[in-house]
Write a structure and sequence with these properties.
binds calcium ion; 5-stranded antiparallel sheet; 2 helices; elongated; alpha+beta
């Protein structure tokens, strides 16, 4: 019984250092794990002629999601920029924070883009070639590592012009290592002390 207690404590410490904690997640599955709330501008309208803007299970040549059954997708949404804004996150209790997401583009030309925005910066996740038409190689994923940031203001700005132009975004994960508060450090030290005393007894 005493040996089992010691093994469980050791196992818990290994697990907490080997696996990053999920800070926020959105897979567009409507699951309880899809914790990172978001809004879109405009609001989703489904199918309007050749235009599509919705949570989708397929989008023409994009035949399925990156993970699960669904993704956020658009087709030929026109010259206006479509915006996805996630709730701001406080990450001051975490270190080694990263954001990972998957994206899929089909039939992009100049003027079509999937951009992500992070704390006021705007970067292109995927854009078409300077001339001609370009697509991603199926789904691709991008990871952004954050340093010296206490909060995250994240979203996407997309634009796709042309009835053959489609895109998808899926599986947005913010993860990091939770830095234990002083109180929980003391609690863990107390727990180890109890184990040590029992072992000597
Ligand atoms: Ca999904
Ligand atoms: Ca286009």
């Amino acid at each position: 019984m005493q040996h089992r207690t010691i093994a469980l404590v050791a196992g818990a410490i290994v697990a907490s250092t080997a696996n990053a904690d999920v800070i926020a997640f959105q897979d567009f599955e409507g699951a309880s794990t899809d914790t990172w709330a978001f809004t879109t501008n405009p609001e989703f309208y489904g199918v309007d002629g050749t235009r599509i803007w919705d949570i989708l299970s397929e989008n023409g040549q994009i035949t399925g999601a990156y993970e699960g059954d669904n993704f956020l997708g658009g087709r030929n949404t026109g010259s206006a920029e479509y915006v996805v804004s996630f709730d701001d996150l406080d990450i001051s209790n975490y270190e080694n924070v990263s954001i990972t997401f998957a994206f899929n583009a089909f039939g992009f030309e100049t003027g079509d883009y999937i951009d992500y925005t992070l704390n006021g910066l705007r970067e292109r996740a995927f854009t078409g070639l300077p001339t001609g038409t370009d697509s991603t190689d199926d789904w691709e994923s991008l990871t952004i590592n954050l340093t010296s940031v206490d909060a995250i203001d994240f979203g996407f700005i997309t634009r796709v012009v042309g009835s053959g132009d489609r895109f998808g975004i899926d599986t947005i994960l913010v993860s990091g290592d939770l830095v234990p508060a002083p109180g929980s450090n003391a609690l863990m030290a107390l727990g180890l002390g109890v184990v040590a005393r029992r072992r000597r007894a």
